[in-house]
Structure formats: C-alpha cells, structure tokens
Amino acid sequence: MAIYGYARCSTNENKQDINRQKRELKALGGVVEKNIYWEYESGTKVDRIELNKLLERVAEGDTIVATEVSRITRSTKQLCEIVETVKRKHLKLIIGGFIVDCSKGELDAMTDGMLKMMGVFAEMERNMISERVRSGMANAVINGRQIGRPKLSEENLPSIFIKHYPKYRYNQINKTELAKICGVSRQSIYKYIGIYEKLSRQ
C-alpha cells in the first residue's frame, strides 16, 4: 500500500510556488517526494496529464493526498467521477484533514454529502473569480488600458526556460520534460524554443 500526493497550481512557478503544497503533503500524509504528482494547470481542466497518471497508477489499498478539494478539481462533476474511481479501486482519499476511506469500496452518506458540498464550494469560488476577472477586464477597456498577455518576445521569455534550455539543447531532456519543468504546455515550449534559437542565430 503506497501513499501518493497531488499538487496543482493554475499558473507557472514564476507566479505561484507549488513547493508549499509539496511540503504540506509530506507533513499531512507522509508522502515522499517521488510519489508526488504535480502540475501547473487550471482546476477546471478535465484532461490533466499528471492527475491522469496518478489515477492510473494507484492500486487497491493505496492513498491519495491533496491539501484541498480545489487542488484536485474545481468541477463538481469531475470530483464525482474521481470519487467513483476511489470507490472502484478501494482507495483512501485524504483532503486536508478530511478523510474519505473507500478501502472497502463503500462511502457513507454523510462523507459523500460533505465531499460533494466541498466540490460545490470549490466550483463556486472559481466562478466568482472568473466574474471578478471579467469585470476587471471590462473596466480596463473602459479606461483605455491594454488587456491580455503581452506579445511574447526575447525580452519576456521566462527565466526558468532560459535556465533549463541548455539541457534540451544537449539532449538531456526532451520538449515534454522541458515543458513540465517550466510549467507550461508543449505548444508554449515550441514558441519559446523558436524565439530563443532565432535570437541565438543573430
């Protein structure tokens, strides 16, 4: 029986420090570093690479630990699907101080209701954040300010990409691994590499 952790932030490590979650996972459930699955993805995204890997790897009797429901998902529907996986595989799910024990394949009504309520609040919080963002963007347009991300150029390439690019350049890691280190998609890595290599040729 193994203990696994899952950590998630919405934006890359230049803006959010995922290591705090890792430290909390180790303290909370005794998770070792090699058993922590982590990624920078939106909590509303259903098809997350590291979460899917974790759910495929766990076996009967294993435990999954997360610091809070919103780290696993901000979708009530997806949370229900994950709970079904936990029940089917006879797992234990620890969310902060809340323990969901499905080692016998069952879940009592009280725990099930509390878990779903936590999922509803996580989704509601996300919707409220989205509303505030839309309101802020509308206000910025009214006041003539530019919105959205600045155009990507050599001046604003992430420092973490520049730091780890030599590993890719000398075939120590591939594009997928570089994307994971940088906390961005493979599509973004292709853009970064194109800009950086064009700059290097000048």
Automatic annotation (TrEMBL):
Family annotation (PROSITE patterns): RECOMBINASES_3 (PS51736)
Native species: Cellulosilyticum lentocellum (strain ATCC 49066 / DSM 5427 / NCIMB 11756 / RHM5) (Clostridium lentocellum)
Family matches, as Pfam families: Resolvase (PF00239)
A GO MF term: DNA binding
PANTHER family linked to this entry: DNA-INVERTASE FROM LAMBDOID PROPHAGE, RESOLVASE HOMOLOG YNEB
Domain Resolvase/invertase-type recombinase catalytic: 2-144
Family: Belongs to the site-specific recombinase resolvase family.
Name of the protein in its database record: Resolvase domain
